[in-house]
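Q: Sequence in, structure out?
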Amino acid sequence: LYHWRKTPESSAARVDAKPYAKQAAQKALKQHLKERGQTGRVLEGLLAGHFRVRFKLTSRPLVSLVLPTDDQRRRVTGRGEISLLQNFLLSLMQKTTYSRYELLVCDNGKLSVESQKLLESIPHRRLSYQEIHPSFNFARKANFCFRQARGAYVVLLNDDLEVITHDWIEAMLEWATQTSIGAVGCKLLY
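A: Exactly. Output:
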């Protein structure tokens, strides 16, 4: 953690007032990576004075993308009614740059004809989950999928998501492949 003191009468109240402090912060992060023996780049963050560390991936493991779905449609402001599953699949295909993944679509045996056609155009494995208990149980459905995943890493997704960042899998793998980390999540925007 790198920081500087800020008082009301000080110029330190503005991030851009002390460019040398920003450079020192970036240098501190680079030094920290070096001391830990990690390979990564320290990039400018989204806000002034913030940084993002991007670690180098040393391998390209298979990632299992687990997608439970009921193939629902929903009204989205500014877009009208959309198929959640189809919208997610299109964004996945158009924007994802990491190619070593398997897609496991877990449905309840009631996919629409349109969704089936879209799935036929992309590599995937379809798992049909039949609920044997009277009430819906997300954990049971997810565990059913996890047992059939072949990847070294599993990403549990919802069908109401949309991929907006091309390197989303890489960004999570950068952290997940570190031995001291057991689980990784990402920021979801509504």
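The chain has a mean pLDDT of 88.
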